[in-house]
Amino acid sequence: MHIVQFYKDYPPIQGGIEHHLQSLSEALAARGHRVTVVFAAPGRRGWRTQRNGVDLVATPRQLTLARAPISLPLLWQVPRLHPDLIHFHHPYPFGDLALLTVQSPLVVTYHSDIVRQRVLGTLTAPLIERTLRRAARIIATSPSLVHSSPWLQRHRERVRVVPFGIPPLPLPDPHLVATLRQRFPGPNALFVGRLRYYKGVDRLIRALALLPFGHAIIAGGDATVRGADLIRLATELGIHHRVHVLGEVDQATLRALYALADVLVLPSVARSEAFGIVQIEAQLAGLPVICTELGTGTSYVTAHRRTGLVVPPDDPPALAAALTELWCNPERARAFGLAGRERAVTEFQFADMVTRIEQVYAEALTVSP
After folding, report:
1. pLDDT per residue over 39-87, tens digit each?
2. What pTM does this model have?
3. Cβ burial, residue 351 (10 Å; 0-12/13-18/19+)
4. Do 321 and 329 form a contact (C-beta atoms < 8 A)?
5. Is the bond leading into 126 cis (omega within 30 degrees of zero)?
6. What is the 3-class SS of 27-75, one letter each residue?
7. Domains with residue ranges and CATH for the chain
């Protein structure tokens, strides 16, 4: 089957959707499908190549509006491919425009609501609604997102829940772990992810300022928030020596950070955080997780008082209390971590995710004319 995966970006652009798109595309290609990924190139020149069995078609980018690339050639590139099925990854409003003339069966993964760009969301609502009506099947990544999103509620009969899955993590380098442990003796709260406004990393720093002990390790590159701003905040709060902003780290360092951390914290404050794949990575590493209740998949992945703690968003005192509970009760934290590892292995297997998505494709082809 020829499958076209369609989104605005693709690695090396960093992000949860981009990483999922790459992993899924390569896995489908390894299973014998012909996979083409169409996206907007980072620059003004388009290009084509094949990488790890996947055909990549990057169309030139004319401009970027509200963090969404505008690439006019997308309007005719996608329909020109005539695939057996198109898998579109929402949100990308310009992509909805490109789908207007597409006749191939359509599957949409609804990654999240459009939250911050309210004006853009209002203007593009008819396009998004048309895409969802036209889709033979819609994939949501958690039951919580289905229940809380008005967009998905309107099309619930065609929604299928397929949680994200990730492959097993390689073991960390013990020498690197030992080296980093000397630098970060702990107790350590680890944040991993791009520094976007909705991640709420500043709330983690404010929570730490309420405590007389503990460190925050922040691993992730600048986006809508800069690491320098977080360092400035920590300095203003008098805890700069307990806040460690590392920027982007390589995979070996990331695995070592998971090994030396005492807890992963995902302090997100907006529904743009629709799942939090990093929580699965932490669970596979045996870490307890603290996340926030957003009505999305965050509290689906982290089960409150089973694999971690779920606190209200934008509430540094509640976050500080959760940190205190886990840091001062290591046996409880260890029990949460073990339960999280079991949940990750049983519920978030990468191969199972790919198989379930193939099943959604089969459904879509059956119901499409």
Report:
1. 999 888 999 999 999 999 999 999 887 778 899 999 999 989 999 999 9
2. 0.91
3. exposed
4. no
5. no
6. HHHHCCCEEEEEEECCCCCCEEEEECCEEEEEECCCEEECCEEECCCHH
7. 2-165+349-367 (3.40.50.2000), 174-347 (3.40.50.2000)
